[in-house]
Amino acid sequence: MDSELRDIEAPADHEVGFPAEMRHLAESASPMAAMETAVQRLEASLRERVSSASPSEAANRLNVSQLGSRALELGLIDAQLADAINGLGVMRLLAITDQTRLGVDEAMEFVSLVAAVLYVLSRPRPAPDESVNGGLPSRECLRRCFNHGQCALSPPEGALRPDVAGVL
Questions:
Q1: Number of H helices, E strands in the chain
Q2: Does the pLDDT of residue 129 top 60, yes or no?
Q3: SS3 103
Q4: How far is the C-alpha of 116 from the C-alpha of 97, rounded, in Å?
Q5: Is the distance from CB of 114 to CB of 46 less than 8 angstroms?
């Protein structure tokens, strides 16, 4: 995964030294220390987003999986990213229960996954009316736009474009 991420231009504020830092920690302290530090960095990023979106939220009490679920509920991330975050939480718990099987290479695989999630979190999220469905907006978005007469996809007379009319 490191090689795949290396070919993608990361945002200016993305922490490109993160995997190297974690490798050093895994080799000098322990693989578990690198995993815990990586999870803490992910938790901090999620905590910041959840707290910003919902200031009254007690985000400091939530673990990484709970933060991912809360971010999904708030619409800050999509379901696939929430699943990835949940998976990282499970992997972390499995590593804690059997640390004898955890080496530097396994810790670095985990760190690579955390780095990928942090990268996705650092990218701008598409507007709610953008769809992964061939560029068409979601059915709910079309209904809202059509019912309120404010759909940017409709011609001036208010009728839906032919290519999106069948989605309703």
A1: 8, 0
A2: no
A3: coil
A4: 24
A5: no
Domain regions of the chain by residue span: 2-122, 126-168
pTM over the 0.70 mark: no
Choose between 16 and 69: higher pLDDT. 69
Structure confidence by residue, pLDDT tens digits, 80-118: 999 999 999 999 999 999 999 999 999 999 999 999 999
Long-range residue pairs from 92-101, CB within 8 A, at least 24 positions apart, any chain? 92/35, 92/36, 92/39, 92/64, 95/32, 95/35, 96/32, 99/31, 99/32
Q: Under DSSP, is residue 167 helix (H, G, I), strand (E, B) or coil? A: coil
**What is the CB neighbour count within 10 angstroms for residue 36?**
17
The number of C-alpha atoms within 13 Å of 86 and in the hemisphere containing its C-beta is 12
Q: How far apart are the C-alpha atoms of 52 and 73, rounded to whole Å?
A: 14
pLDDT by residue (tens digit) across 34-50?
A: 999 999 999 999 999 99
Token digits for 64?
């990484």
How far does the chain reach from its first CA to its final CA, in angstroms? 39
